Amino acid sequence: MKKVLLFNFLLFALTIHAQYDSRFGVTAGANEYYMKGDFLFSRSNTGFTIGLVGTIPISENSEILTEITVSRHRMEFIGRENELASPEWIKFHLDRSNVSFIYDYDILHFLDDDLAIGFCAGPSFAFFGNFIPTDKSKEGYLLDPYGMDTEYMRLDGYGETMAFNVLAAFGPSVRYVNLEGSLRYYKGITDTYRNFPGSSPYTQFTGKDSYLSFTLTYYFGHSLD
């Protein structure tokens, strides 16, 4: 599925590049995932993001970035092998495919317009939602404080054929010629755990997860200015 999404975006980007005075590039970076659900004891670890970016110019100082990326988010939950075992931090990862539409506006220019500082914002759509233990031997462990099996964290397939979430992305950007750095906060809009299998009429597990991302993007072809 991820390969299909990447292939479709590549075709889209090439079509846009042929029709507009646009740019095409590759992006990679690091992310820090923040779980907002209060029904698990969690802490963040550093993950990574890679993908492709296509642009559509809007004006001399602004453009729309269409991005398709694959992210691996990392985190840890407190759990135990069984009810009598001692608690420990268990490493998990969450693999997602993301499609984002970001408005990028240059606020300041320096060095004959080679250097630009701007701000970007827009919606991001995240697909897939399985939190999986990194150590397969810890599948089936119980997660504190409710003693839920780690299998409950596989959100794909519970109420939806594929987990889907919407986030709002925003943050500053700095571009020098064809290299752009971006620091963005992705704030969760939808409830990440709306189809969590452990929910009941008496106990609701909710949370709008967010993450921070720093990426570097290299554009092929000319710069925006």
Walkthrough of the structure:
There is one protein chain. With about 220 residues, the chain is mainly β. It has one domain (about 1-220): Beta Barrel (Porin). It has one helix and eleven strands. The chain has an eight-stranded antiparallel β-barrel with strand order 1-2-3-4-5-9-10-11. The model has no long low-confidence stretch (mean pLDDT about 90).
Keywords:
225 residues; mainly beta; Porin; 56% strand; elongated; Outer membrane protein beta-barrel domain-containing protein; signal
Using the 3D structure, state the CATH architecture.
Answer: Beta Barrel
Shape: elongated
What is the CATH topology descriptor?
A: Porin
| Spatial ordering of strands, largest sheet | 1-2-3-4-5-9-10-11
Task: Give the integer mean of the pLDDT values.
Answer: 88
What is the number of E strands? 11
CATH first level: Mainly Beta
Extract low-pLDDT stretches: none
The largest sheet is:
8 strands, antiparallel, barrel
How many structural domains in the coordinates?
A: 1
The succession of helices and strands, N to C, reads: HEEEEEEEEEEE
Radius of gyration: 20 Å
Helix content: under 10%
**Residue share in β-strands:** over 45%
- Termini separation (Å)? 36 Å
User: Helix count, per DSSP?
Assistant: 1
Structural class assignment: mainly beta
Protein name: Outer membrane protein beta-barrel domain-containing protein
Keywords: Signal
Organism: Flavobacterium subsaxonicum WB 4.1-42 = DSM 21790
